[in-house]
Amino acid sequence: MAILSFCFMSSIFAQEVEQLTKKDSIVESYWLVTLGTNFVDDSGHEFNKLFDFQKAWNVVPYPSRLSFGRYFKNGLGLEAIASYNKYHEGKIVDQIKMAEDIDYFGLDFRVSYDLNMILGETGFFDPYIGIGAGYTDANNQGRGTYNAVIGFRTWFSDHWGLDFSSTGKWAMSTENATNHIQHALGVAYRFEVEKGLSRKGEEKLALLEELEKEQQRVQDSIAKAEEEARLLAERLQREKEAAELAAAERAKKDAEDARRAALQTKINDLDNVYFKLNSSYLTSHDKELLDQLVAIMNGEPNLKIKITAHTDSRGTKEYNQWLSERRAQRTVEYVVSKGISQDRISHEAFGETQLVNECGDGVYCTEDKHAKNRRSEFVIVEY
Questions:
Q1: What's the start-to-end Cα distance of the chain, in Å?
Q2: What is the per-residue pLDDT across 96-147, written as a single tens digit (0 to 9) for each?
Q3: What is the pLDDT, as a whole number, of residue 112?
Q4: Biggest alpha carbon distance in the chain?
Q5: Which ranges of the chain would DSSP assign to H, the alpha helix?
Q6: Which of 56, 170, 307, 338 would give a disulfide with 347, using CB separation of 3.0 to 4.6 Å?
Q7: Cβ-count burial of 163 within 10 angstroms (0-12 exposed, 13-18 middle, 19+ buried)?
Q8: Are the C-beta atoms of residues 143 and 154 closer than 8 Å to each other?
């Protein structure tokens, strides 16, 4: 019974999917270029004689308007518009008849909003409103303007259409500059078009997704036992491999730690190199000790050592820092002279900053105690 129900639902959903057409998709964002002509009404009667074509409207007999813009999925659009026109002799401009032809130039920027976001998709009809600002040179008077626009586009395809608009332009400064209206008609071309589904298309897509979920649920139910068994076997195998790997890693680490500890103990057993007062020269005993260090390093080719050199507290800090540097260098030079590569042994001088006892400045100590601070020590850097 459940299978029959599922098949019936699949049939219904399949019919819905078959009804998805190009009309179910809409253009959501795009770049836009328009080329056309513009008509300027600057008669001084903005809303009184709107359609006085003969006396008030000015137009030139060739393309005179170019725009470029970007329109987004949220309905907002940004557009830059350049226009040219000519106030013709005999036309009414600012309520005065023109005695000669005068050029008109405009450069405007605007933000528009697609009213289909409110009205719902109307197919080929795309109304919009907008506001903006710009600069206009009209009747030999330049002025900044605040603009308001209303218009619509009608599309013949995803790329081509017509653009109609009317723009009111209000001068930012009313001194010697009047308000006027500019109408526009142009061919529109949009590119880099991004499309999405209309509301109806989204509903159909939701039905398709429900169908897919139902199909997946049935398939999962049929294969559940087999899948769970397979997953369990894989999990047990992974756990076994992980446990074996962890045990091997632990054993390897333990062995390396033990070997490192043994090596450090072996180096520590060599004791330190101890220097005479104000001296950085190695004694024969010191060289024998360093020969043992060289033997250890020859037996461990991956071993890298750092020599740290120190002084007692007697003398100035600057002198002791210099002296410990000399002691470190002489110690390293001897080890290198025995065939150890320079990149396997480094050094660092600490002067009197790391005393091993209380024999600091101003503290009386015996010579034996001071001697314990005049040392070079060996530290494992890498193994």
A1: 71
A2: 888 899 999 999 999 999 998 888 776 678 999 999 999 999 888 889 999 9
A3: 96
A4: 119
A5: 2-18, 53-56, 116-119, 199-268, 284-299, 317-337, 367-371
A6: 307
A7: buried
A8: no
DSSP secondary-structure letter at 156? S
Q: How many CB atoms lie within 10 A of CB 189?
A: 15
Residue type, 234: E
pTM of the model: 0.50
**Under 8 Å between Cβ of 81 and 188:** no
Do residues 351 and 307 lie in contact, with contact meaning Cβ atoms separated by under 8 Å?
A: no
**Is the Cβ–Cβ distance between 273 and 335 less than 8 Å?**
no
* Distances in whole angstroms, Cα of residue 71 to Cα of each of 26, 30, 74, 105, 114: 13, 5, 9, 25, 9
Residues 158/181, Cβ–Cβ less than 8 Å:
no
Whole-angstrom Cα Rg for the chain: 45
Q: What integer pLDDT is reported at residue 174 of this predicted model?
A: 65
Backbone angles phi, psi at 381, to 5 degrees: -95, -40
Distance CA 27, CA 161 (A): 13
Q: What is the dihedral of CA 15, 20, 21, 25, to 10 degrees?
A: 170
What is the sign of the dihedral through the CA atoms of 199, 203, 206 and 211?
Answer: negative
